[in-house]
Amino acid sequence: MATADIPQPSTTPPVDTNKLWSAASLSEIADQVIAGEKISPEIAEQLLSTPDESLLDLLAAAFRIRQKHFGKSVQLYFLMNAKSGLCPEDCSYCSQSKVSDAPVEKYNILNREALLDGARVAAERKSKTYCMVISARGPNEREMRTVEEIIPEIKEKYDLKVCACLGLLDQSQADRLKKCGVDRVNHNLNTGGDFYGSICSTHTYQDRKDTLKAVRDAGMEICSGGIVGMGEKKSDIVSMAFELQELKAESIPVNFLNAIEGTPLQGINYLTPNYCLKVLCMFRFVNPTSEIRISGGREIHLKSLQPLGLYAANSMFVGDYLTTKGQPPESDYRMIEDLGFEITREEEISQ
Ligand code: SF4
């Protein structure tokens, strides 16, 4: 990838849409979304430019959509980094990439005991889903076999859904994952198609979309989202949100770039808590029935406004991320309780 060309954040001035940003107008758009209408990419981009003074109105409108489909429920996800480092790809945000100097642990795919133990912890932490992630362009045969052997055992022992994140998949690999009991595959689009070449050169946006098509054709659910704060334009984030709408992604993890020292994107840090909230709201308006998960970077970018994120999103990770620490699970449980929300393992409450 063109790692030398570190992209800069968008400086596009917001369109003058004071009317759109009024409480009444935002509420009206929420009504339309609740009634099944789709907003346009132009409106979605304007939502990202909502003035801070109107942020609470935007959150209130997004919350009405969230409440319609998910009530006050919060679904928790638990991540297991089943293979760390050693990745030949050059994704510039990733500490496990070959182009990263970040001091991450490096190990091959974990054994049966460790993967089972991860499932135990996920269940203990009230997670709905156990996410098994490997660092790789795609799974090799040994990794495929490990996953095929462990998934039935996990599902027999624990009341957990399993999401596999194994990199690029062809159709036969996707079919094998479906057959062994994987419920869902995570493969993030990461950003808009126009920006993708700025963050990775070893595979293409189309490669990622092809994997998601294979996942869908195999009959599994799609978990796909992205990373905000890599220097993309607002239109790139909107473009990704609409791609995910078209893919009918059941689950959308929204990460906020934690620019880890040693990665090509180190030093990029321009997100504000208010902007992160606007991003979550925009995803809710564009993808009303999808699980929207506040993911990596939650603690460092939303800061003390983390609870407000759950007015738009309905899901989050509990515990640590792949190579960085999260806050203690007890703090998350308390936050959810203080909001008057409740942890659930149920699907959405209505369509
Ligand atoms: S393919 Fe995955 S693990 Fe490898 S560099 Fe990209 S994001 Fe990191």
Could you walk me through the main structural features you see in this protein, from its secondary elements to its overall organization?
The protein is α/β, with parallel strands linked by helices and 351 residues long. It is built from 13 helices and ten strands. Strands 1, 2, 3, 4, 5, 6, 7, 8, 9 and 10 form a ten-stranded parallel β-sheet that branches. α4 crosses α5. The radius of gyration is 19 Å and the shape is globular. It starts with 22 loop residues before the first helix and ends in an 8-residue tail after the last strand. Bound molecules: iron/sulfur cluster (SF4).
End-to-end separation in angstroms reads 41 Å
Low-pLDDT ranges: 1-16
The major β-sheet equals: 10 strands, parallel
Counted beta strands: 10
CATH architecture group name of the domain at 71-269 and 292-302 and 316-343: Alpha-Beta Barrel
By CATH, the topology of the domain at 71-269 and 292-302 and 316-343 is: TIM Barrel
Ligands bound, unique? iron/sulfur cluster
